[in-house]
Every structure is written in C-alpha cells, then in structure tokens.
C-alpha cells in the first residue's frame, strides 16, 4: 500500500505538470489575431487547467509528505528496539559534569561522565572519532554512543548507521569508531554513567540498551530546541 501511494502521488504530479504545460500552450495560442470572444474562451480554459493543475500538485505533495512522515516514524520508532533480551550493563562512577575548553584526562578509558566541552555533536554515523570532551557532553543530554572498531565489516556498519537514526525527544544516537575498545570486545555502548561491552555486534542487545537509556541523561533538552544534536 505504501509503495502504491507513492506511485499514485507520482502519477498525479505528472498530470499536474502536463496541465501546466497545456495551460502554457493555450496562452501562446491566445494572440492578437483572435477575436475578443475567442480570446475570452481561451483565457477561461487556461485558468481552469491551471486551477486543476494547482489542485493536483497540492494533492501529490501532500501524499508525499504523509508517506515520508509515516514511514520515517515507523522505521525509527524507538518502541521497535524494546527487545525482550537480558543485557549486561555496568553502572559506572560519576566523575562530574562541569564544562571546560581545556583537554581532559578522564578516569575511564571510555568515559561516561566527567568534565567536558561546552559543545556537543550532531547525532549520526561517524567515520572518525571526535574528542571525548564533546562525546561526554552528548551523554549528558541523554544520547547513546555506540563505539565500534574501524575495521568492522560492512554489514555491521550498515546496522550501526541504521541505529544512529533513532531519536527520543531531544536525544539521539551516535555511532563512532574507537581504538580504545578493550581486547576481546567489538562493540562498546555508552550512556551517562552506563556501559555495555559486547564481543560482537548484537542488534537486539544494542537496541535494548538504546531503548533503556536514551534521553535519561541529567540534562534533557526538548526536541524543539535540540534538533539533531550539536546545538548546545
């Protein structure tokens, strides 16, 4: 049904474009050589065609917007990550939350709290690791950070890119390569003062972690203010 609605929307769009072209043709035919009543007939016909074309264009655009909104909402619905699986999560120590523009020596190799930069990062999939000072700020706002090895296979990278598109209120997900992942582990998932280490990527475990901890940081920013991260 969703695909059919897109085809219908595209067909209506084509009809509207054809209508605009036909109205333009009528205008070109409306020359000074025509009689007054003939010009009036062509003008009325062109106006009717343009009006119908405007209406069809609006319908086509509306159908497209509804399709995108529905499919985006369904595809990245946070409830879809509520897998019924147990996950082993470590509750980390709290090391503060002040801001600084200086480099920080963190108590943890992969920090989940502490002094951090006044700037955070956009949500999404990263091919290069940003500074921990900025990543920790994201955690403070309730974001989830999935750390992966740079040499991860393409199937894992595709899954991480997919998960990085999930949002909950003003919080989101970042997937970031990291050389500090412990030996014997392939994935480290972090939230504010929480860590989960995995020997291999497990979609259900990572999804459950996101579901349990997203938007649970000490500073929750409304989505209307924090659109996509990187704003604070």
Structure described in brief:
A hairpin with a 2-residue loop joins strand 6 and strand 7. It contains 5 helices and 7 strands; from the N terminus they run H-H-E-E-H-E-H-E-E-E-E-H. The chain folds into 2 domains: 2-75; 80-213, no CATH class.
What does this structure look like?
It is a single chain. With 232 residues, the chain is of the alpha/beta class. The chain folds into 2 domains: 2-75; 80-213, no CATH class. Helices cover 42% and strands 12% of the residues. The chain contains 5 helices and 7 strands; from the N terminus they run H-H-E-E-H-E-H-E-E-E-E-H. Strands 1, 2, 3, 4, 5, 6 and 7 form a 7-stranded mixed β-sheet that branches. Strand 6 (187-191) and strand 7 form a beta hairpin. The longest helix has 40 residues, at 36-75. The chain is elongated, with a radius of gyration of 27 Å. The mean pLDDT is 88.
